[in-house]
Amino acid sequence: MSTLTITVSKPKRKVIDTTDYSIGNMKKELLWVQRTQAKKAFQDTMEQLKKCCTSLHLSQKCDPRLGVQNANPGTERYNLLPKQGGDNLKAIVSLLGDNVIQAEVTIKNPKVAGGFFRSVAQPDVQWKLQQLQDLGNHIARATISLCEMENNLNARCESDSDSFSVETGTLLLNEARAIKDEISFARSSILLPRKRSLLELCYFPPTRKFVPPLPQDNLLSFYISSCRLVCASYQIVPKTVNPQGLTVFMSECQLPFLDEVLESLNLAMLSLQKLISYLDMCRPPITANLS
């Protein structure tokens, strides 16, 4: 007796494609970020950079729309001491903005009478700390871009609600990243040391302005590192004393105004990074149908 086998196939479940739905939501979120978050992020960033411009006296460099009051920098005098104690090198440096206007040094040197060489430089040539100049330039460029973006956002917010799009989101993202890069460069200029080579120091005009002149086997360098003003003395010595033929003494001091600038730059970067993360997260895939 044959057996009849009946096979019943289950109806296939309808698969719902959620891709279009997800992309639509991402687009809505992207527009919301542009309308509500972008302007606040740029304003918060500008507020922090305005503090930097005021502290660094950048009213002539930064965007005038920032409203930084004109003020001339005053002379600040700093006492630089050896980091690990001792008396190998001491210096007193007077700064006017990003210019060194006077430097007094006392260097331990067994070749001179008394064992210490003392000299003063009050150069009649421009003696700028390049790192402070770079700091101001990067901040100034960031303020110009920020003010332009704020004007652009204000114009769009005052027009109809369709003035924001995926394309404007991409524009905002690119601008935010570019401004963040400028701020990052500004931070690096006062955190990372930038030293001249020994050959550059030999021909650096202010080096020749010390009275009495520096010994022929001695060079001096001034630079910024981790918001500190550093003075380094390079002395050529016999290789029996040092295999490298060079002895380096250093003295330094903290620059409080740079600590404040760094704090403001950090807060500015946080505001921009938050906006960048929002915009990047809400961007629909490039291959998506954005119509």
From TrEMBL:
InterPro entries: RAVE2/Rogdi (IPR028241). One of its GO terms (cellular component) is RAVE complex. It comes from the Eukaryota. Belongs to the rogdi family. This is Protein rogdi homolog. It comes from Caenorhabditis auriculariae.
